[in-house]
Write a structure and sequence with these properties.
Elements (H helix, E strand, L loop, with lengths): L9 H10 L6 H12 L3 E4 L6 H15 L11 E4 L3 H14 L7 E4 L6 H9 L3 E4 L1 H9 L10 E5 L1 H4 L2 H13 L5 E6 L4 H9 L5 E4 L10 E7 L5 H11 L4 E5 L3 H13 L5 E3 L5 H13 L4 E4 L12 E6 L6 H8 L9 E7 L4 H11 L10 H10 L1 H30 L1
Parallel strand pairs: 1-6, 1-7, 2-4, 2-5, 3-4, 5-6, 8-13, 9-11, 9-12, 10-11, 12-13
This protein binds adenosine-5'-diphosphate and magnesium ion.
């Protein structure tokens, strides 16, 4: 089925043409009719399979054709997501789908001045995309009301229903009309969260694509055993071997992101950093430079593991394994998006074997290993610029020392 045959407005169809989509992906094919009918949906489909448009297309159509006019009455659709970058990205998709309609979509996130956001809300917003923090700030100050919201979407739903966010979601639910449509989307979900999701809706229809393997079929993923102290040499080597590729490197903590970036800088490799400790402006700038290809190496924590859609990322490196098994799927899902293919390699030290087992248990299979022979391993260490820099420094020190000895001798001679 082509998008042109869907029972959606011509304006939305033009928006889809603008996005360059010809036919729906599986998850779009399955969810769009249900969402148009007003049903509750739990859509589980692999990373990069177009879940955003799976809800954006029917929701823009519904708002556009809604009989309730006058958007001063307040927001109709509320989309909640875990990170600011994701909110902005989804806003971009909605704006493209709704380009030829009068539907107003807006993303409200923290980390930036709230006054322009209040202005926008006052002018009228139909579809609001938010991270919970700033939204509650605006609600408590009386700038935002949710009493007209007839559709709630939780993207990265398992994350949104996770402990950290669950209280916020309950708070939101209390403010929404009882009669509403609820949509959940994610690439991963466990049975506990699934139950929780079902408890929040009337009759969720479960729409699941490729439930057996949560990893996108477009991603080839492997592990290699590498000692913790040697990881930087292997990253350096991998970057040199993939010089022209866009690469995303995931690490476990903010401090490690800074350290890995500094280690790369020492060997002449420039990188961008995104983590939760950075100013929002810096995070946005880093993502922009990465997207535009100004710098092709992004070092990030799990804050960028979910949802981020940067076309052209060809390689994901798990410099550290994630603490939470499902984040493995999300991290490596930053490559192989849409019709593209991608590779992912995880550096696993001895201390990380348990994490690896947990991930393999979550996936229900072993991740193939790229074995590195002793000789190859040593070559990577020897090839490192850091080593040659160290050697060079050592050489200089040695020469200076000798010079010193010589001049001391000379001085003695002179005496
Ligand atoms: P997900 O949320 O499932 O991880 P996204 O919604 O971010 O995936 O979409 C992944 C990529 O696929 C995006 O770059 C998007 O433009 C592209 N895409 C989505 N739907 C289609 C389609 N029907 N045809 C071609 N490309 C698509
Ligand atoms: Mg997504």
């Amino acid at each position: 089925m082509k998008f042109s045959n869907y029972p959606i407005t011509d304006e939305v169809k033009r928006g889809i043409i603008g996005l360059g989509f010809k036919k729906p992906t599986d998850i779009q094919f399955k969810s769009i009719p249900s969402i148009l009918k007003g049903e509750d949906v739990l859509g589980i489909a692999q990373t990069g399979t177009g879940k955003t448009a799976a809800f954006a297309i029917p929701l823009v159509h519904k708002v556009q054709t809604s009989s309730i006019k006058g958007r001063k009455d307040g927001v109709r659709c509320l989309i909640m997501v875990p990170t600011r970058e994701l909110a902005q990205q989804i806003q971009g998709v909605f704006n493209k789908v709704g380009k030829y309609t009068t539907v107003k979509t807006y993303a409200i996130t923290g980390g930036v001045d709230q006054d322009p956001q209040i202005d926008k809300l006052n002018k009228g917003v139909d579809i609001l995309i938010t991270t919970p923090g700033r939204m509650f700030d605006l609600i408590s100050q009386g700038y935002l009301s949710l009493h007209r919201v007839n559709t709630l979407v939780l993207d990265e739903a398992d994350r949104m229903l996770d402990l950290g966010f669950y209280k916020d979601i309950r708070d939101v639910l209390k403010r929404l009309p009882k009669k509403r449509q609820t949509l959940f989307f994610s690439a991963t979900i466990n049975s506990k969260i699934k139950k929780l999701a079902y408890s929040l809706v009337n009759n969720a229809i479960r729409i699941q694509i490729s439930p057996k393997d949560p990893v996108s079929k477009n991603v080839n993923h492997f592990v290699s055993s590498i000692d913790m102290d040697d990881k930087r040499f292997f990253l350096e080597n991998l970057i040199h071997k993939n010089e022209d590729k866009k690469i995303m490197v995931f690490v476990r903590t903010q401090v490690r992101a800074e350290r890995v970036s500094a280690a790369m800088e020492r060997v002449g490799i420039v990188s961008l950093i995104i983590h939760g400790g950075k100013e929002q402006k810096e995070r946005n700038q880093a993502l922009k430079k990465f997207k535009e290809g100004e710098i092709n190496l992004l070092i990030a924590t799990d804050v960028s593991a979910r949802g981020v859609d940067v076309p052209g990322v060809e390689l994901v490196v798990n410099y550290d394994l994630p603490d939470v098994a499902e984040n493995y799927v999300h991290r490596i899902g930053r490559t192989g998006r849409g019709n593209q293919k991608g590779d992912a390699l995880s550096f696993v030290s001895k201390g990380e074997m348990e994490l690896l087992l947990a991930i393999e248990q979550f996936l229900g299979k072993k991740i193939p290993e790229v074995e590195i022979s002793k000789k190859e391993y040593q070559t990577v260490l020897d090839l490192s610029n850091e080593k040659s820099l160290d050697d060079l420094l050592g050489q200089i020190e040695f020469e200076l020392e000798n010079e010193g000895k010589k001049s001391r001798k000379n001085r003695k001679k002179k005496k």
